[in-house]
């Protein structure tokens, strides 16, 4: 896949994935088109050699794999992991707020959000809705308002003269967005507004009333190239839908000789402790049903996991926030992430294999180590390594503006990582 074709597919994928549910729906559609077979966790599985399969949990996490031509007990599995969720603002169950003629929604902060960039943006609403249909059955549907319906206005500087030097954000009182005007006697329920939207999106939808929802606000500005020479890509949710897209394309395009797998977990941004998160049993359950639980030790001893999650590129205005020898630059290659306190799962063996493959392909790579006087984030890498006992590497595309409403990466690094992961998934021996 060429660089330009790869990035266009990425931009389309990001634009159509405002939530983890939408991202997984897109990935399953791509897998279906590629001939993969969906597996239901409630059914008995019968897997064949040299075939592609996938399973979905909660609609927001996915495991896709190719069984390959070889026995995983003999050759192991080449695995790539990413996560589908991003920091955002989620709408509360009883969100209605009526203040001074404005109808607002109460929101809850999800993950480690940079809050200030959410002000003064054109916001929409998307997510999953659970409803009762006309026959009394409980069903799920995805909803996306697709247009700007919400706005979080800043307080004018005339009313806050210290705004540029000393403004903090109170998540409870400062963040409720305005979605419409409302008279004093307004009794409009948000669920009624949601019901109207769902019927507008699908007039054939048989829905009696809304039972519950998991909805997020998102910025309606589309992903785009940025820079005088289009050197960068700017978008919401690059962390970590970029890695989901890279891993998916690598799985689709790898040789298929050896067993290969992609896992995209939800809830990484809040600790991964859920049924569909990396601390949960989803991946291990799929693996056990593939080759049998009693063989796990032998398979994992020959396998390797690459946890792909974006890395901190060195910020030109804050270069001192990086170790002087470990400041990744955009468009200079994917970043091997190292932390000897096991916030990243990389060891010398896994890092060396990645460097070896990169060198064979004549592709660049970089290394990140956090400053010794600063804390370090983490990924699904250590969690998965601990759960499975598998050699693991943490790597990611360098980015700026991490956890902001809009982030930026180099336009070359994603395609570089894709090429290495594609080769990794077909590599003769990984551990």
The CATH homologous superfamily name of the largest domain equals Zn peptidases
CATH level 3 topology of the largest domain: Aminopeptidase
The CATH level-2 architecture of the largest domain is identified as 3-Layer(aba) Sandwich
CATH classification, class level of the largest domain: Alpha Beta
Discrete helix count: 11
Descriptive keywords:
431 residues, alpha/beta, Aminopeptidase, Aminopeptidase i, Domain 2, nine-stranded mixed beta sheet, five-stranded mixed beta sheet, 26% strand, globular
In brief:
The protein is built from 11 helices and 20 strands.
How would you summarize the topology of this molecule?
Blueprint: H1 3-15, H2 20-33, E1 37-39, E2 52-57, E3 61-66, H3 72-75, E4 78-83, E5 88-99, E6 102-110, E7 123-132, E8 138-144, H4 163-166, E9 178-181, H5 190-201, E10 209-219, E11 224-226, E12 232-235, H6 238-253, E13 260-265, H7 282-291, H8 296-301, E14 304-308, E15 311-312, E16 335-337, H9 348-360, E17 366-368, H10 380-388, E18 391-396, E19 398-400, E20 407-410, H11 413-425
Describe this structure as you would to a colleague.
The protein has 431 residues and is α/β, with parallel strands linked by helices. It folds into 2 domains: 274 residues, Aminopeptidase (3-Layer(aba) Sandwich), CATH 3.40.630.10; 132 residues, Roll (Aminopeptidase i, Domain 2). It is 26% helix and 26% strand. It contains 11 helices and 20 strands. A 9-stranded mixed β-sheet has the order 1-2-3-13-4-14-18-16-17, with helices on both faces. The protein has a 5-stranded mixed β-sheet with strand order 11-12-20-19-15, covered by helices on one side. Strands 5-6-9 form a 3-stranded antiparallel β-sheet, with no helix packed on it. A hairpin with a 6-residue loop joins strand 19 and strand 20. The longest helix is centred in the middle third of the chain and has 16 residues. It is globular. The relative contact order is 0.18. The mean pLDDT is 95.
């Amino acid at each position: 896949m060429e660089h330009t074709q790869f990035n266009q597919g990425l931009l389309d994928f990001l634009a159509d994935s405002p939530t983890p549910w939408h991202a997984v729906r897109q990935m399953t559609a791509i897998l279906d088109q590629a001939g993969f077979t969906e597996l239901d966790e409630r059914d008995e599985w019968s897997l064949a050699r040299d075939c592609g399969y996938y399973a979905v949990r909660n609609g927001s996490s996915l495991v896709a794999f190719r069984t390959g031509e070889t026995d995983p007990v003999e050759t192991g599995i080449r695995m790539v992991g990413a996560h589908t969720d991003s920091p955002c603002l989620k709408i509360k169950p009883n969100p209605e707020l009526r203040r001074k003629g404005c109808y607002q929604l109460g929101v809850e902060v999800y993950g480690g959000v940079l809050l200030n960039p959410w002000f003064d943006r054109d916001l929409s609403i998307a997510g999953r809705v659970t409803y009762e249909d006309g026959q009394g059955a409980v069903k799920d549907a995805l909803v996306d308002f697709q247009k700007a319906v919400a706005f979080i206005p800043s307080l004018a500087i005339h009313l806050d003269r210290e705004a540029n030097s000393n403004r903090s954000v109170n998540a409870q009182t400062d963040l409720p967005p305005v979605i419409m005007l409302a008279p004093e006697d307004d009794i409009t329920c948000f669920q009624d507004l949601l019901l109207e939207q769902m019927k507008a999106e699908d007039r054939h939808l048989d829905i009696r009333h809304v039972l519950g929802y998991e909805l997020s606000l998102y910025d309606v500005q589309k992903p785009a190239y940025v820079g005088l020479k289009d050197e960068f890509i700017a978008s919401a949710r690059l962390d970590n839908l970029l890695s989901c897209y890279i891993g998916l394309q690598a799985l689709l395009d790898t040789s298929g000789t050896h067993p290969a797998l992609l896992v995209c977990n939800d809830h990484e941004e809040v600790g991964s402790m859920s049924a569909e998160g990396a601390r949960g049993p989803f991946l291990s359950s799929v693996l056990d049903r593939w080759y049998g639980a009693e063989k796990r030790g032998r398979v994992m001893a020959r396998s390797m996991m690459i946890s792909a999650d974006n890395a901190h590129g060195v910020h030109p205005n804050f270069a001192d926030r990086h170790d002087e020898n470990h400041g990744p630059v955009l468009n200079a290659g994917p970043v091997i992430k190292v932390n000897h306190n096991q916030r990243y799962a990389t060891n010398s063996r896994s890092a060396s294999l990645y460097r070896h493959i990169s060198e064979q392909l004549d592709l660049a790579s970089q290394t990140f180590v956090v400053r010794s006087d600063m804390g370090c984030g983490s990924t699904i890498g250590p969690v998965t390594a601990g759960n499975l006992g598998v050699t693991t590497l943490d790597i990611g595309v360098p980015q700026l503006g991490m956890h902001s409403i809009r982030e930026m990466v180099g336009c070359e690094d994603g395609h570089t990582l894709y090429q290495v992961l594609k080769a990794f998934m077909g590599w003769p021996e990984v551990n």
